[in-house]
Amino acid sequence: MTTLLRRSLPCLAVYLILLLAVLLTMQYILQTQARTETGKLLAHSIELLDRTGIRGIQHHFTVPSAYGAGFLRVTGPDVQLILVTGNDTESVPDFNTLPPVLNKTWISLDDPGQHGSWTILSRKTADGLTVQLGLDTRKLFALYQMLRQRILWLGLLLSPLVLVPAWYWQNKQQQQVRQLCRIIDQTARNPQSPALTNDFSQNGPELVQAVRRLLERHERLATELRESMDNVAHDLRTPMTRLRTIAEYGLQEEDPDRLRDALADCLEESERVLSMLHTMLSVAEAEADTVQLNLQPVSLAKILQDVLELYEIIAEEQDVHIEYLQEADPVVEIDPPRMQQVFANLLDNAIKYGATRVTITLKQQGNLAIVSIADNGMGISSSEIERIWERLYRGDRSRSKQGLGLGLTLAQAMVIAHKGHIEVQSELNKGSTFIVSLPLPSHITHL
């Protein structure tokens, strides 16, 4: 009931506005009629004054019998004439206090600032005289008061009807909610149910499509969770076994130095496990399209230079020469830390897997910023190149190197999350080239 009353407030406001509009319109029509009648009589009196003069108008001035009384006042330098006529002359004003120039509708003669039943108009003639005519329009004023009272009573009696549209919309919304629940239930059980085809015409394709997208996203999240749990269970078995073995070995040691080494190995293995979990969660978020990106306009050249500075010492230690070629300086909207991690993974793989030379190229083609990382390392065989993006996959020749098998998976997921594209070109024993393409925002070109 409280909800119904709350929904009825807008209807009540509209109802009151309409009621006020009716009252104001009725008042305007009746006042216009009073001014029109008074204006016609004033124009006739001025014409009579011009034609017959003061004496003539004294004999011929009169008001229609429909009105209770009336007066005509003519003032000038040498003229002061007041004529009163009609059936009721007791309510005429005190002309000593009444201004000679006055244009009012429905005023009180005792107090011109208050509402009453008289309508007074004034006009100057070509002879310099001021002609003022007052008409007792109490019948029109009484009609207005009677109609206003009846309309207010009628409005009060009909006011409960404002609950009807509120009840109608509330009932309609409840029906829509029930229909939505039914559609969600049907879509969850059978997304291609024939019953849903009829709902397209009744509820619109947008509703059904929105429900389907919601369920598909839910299913994708559930699938990602299952795969993540399977991968975690599979890949954590080895490090957790090693961690347990080291811990048991440490418990048997009495030498502090060996015990310290065992604790250090435990710490290293735990860091490896935490890194694996963090990376797998990031991949799952990106692939499920739930990753939260802090997008901001950044120079892509600045991101690559930060990565080069990070790997400069590592490359020197392994005698790897890195060449950086910058053909453009595009600005892209990215999450800097996440995109820096993408390029860091690609460069780390190039250094790790036998390269002696790595060439990083930054250029712009149309509305794309393109970064290519080419190396002369061991390359990727044709049988493995399609699987390198799989989670936890490691090729035969890469198993001797330390790693989780998640670097390329994470790189691809993050690039796709940025609406970009990543691809690889490789030839066994000759090297690989990873190409990352990122879209340029329409309102940003260069720094």
Description of the molecule:
- With 447 residues, the chain is α+β, with helices and mostly antiparallel strands.
- It has 3 domains: 2-159; 225-287; 296-439, 2-Layer Sandwich (Heat Shock Protein 90).
- Helices cover 54% and strands 18% of the residues.
- The chain contains 10 helices and 12 strands.
- Helix 1 (2-60) runs antiparallel to helix 3, helix 5 packs antiparallel against helix 7 (256-287) and helix 8 runs parallel beside helix 9 (336-352).
- The chain is elongated and about 135 Å long.
- It is an enzyme of class 2 (transferase).
Looking at this protein, list some descriptive labels.
single chain, 447 residues, alpha+beta, Heat Shock Protein 90, five-stranded antiparallel β-sheet, five-stranded mixed β-sheet, 54% helix, elongated, transmembrane, transferase, membrane
Q: Helix and strand succession?
A: HEEEEEHHHHHHEHEEHEEHEE
Strand residues, percent: 15-25%
What shape does the CA trace take? elongated
Strands, total number: 12
Instruction: From the alpha carbons, calculate the radius of gyration and give it in angstroms.
Output: 46 Å
Distance between the termini: 60 Å
Task: Identify the strand order in the major beta sheet.
Answer: 2-1-5-4-3
For this entry, what is the oligomeric state of its chains?
single chain
Number of helices: 10
Low-confidence stretches: 396-403, 443-447
How many domain modules?
Answer: 3
| Secondary-structure-derived class | alpha+beta
Q: State the major sheet.
A: 5 strands, antiparallel
Estimate the helix proportion, in percent: 40-55%
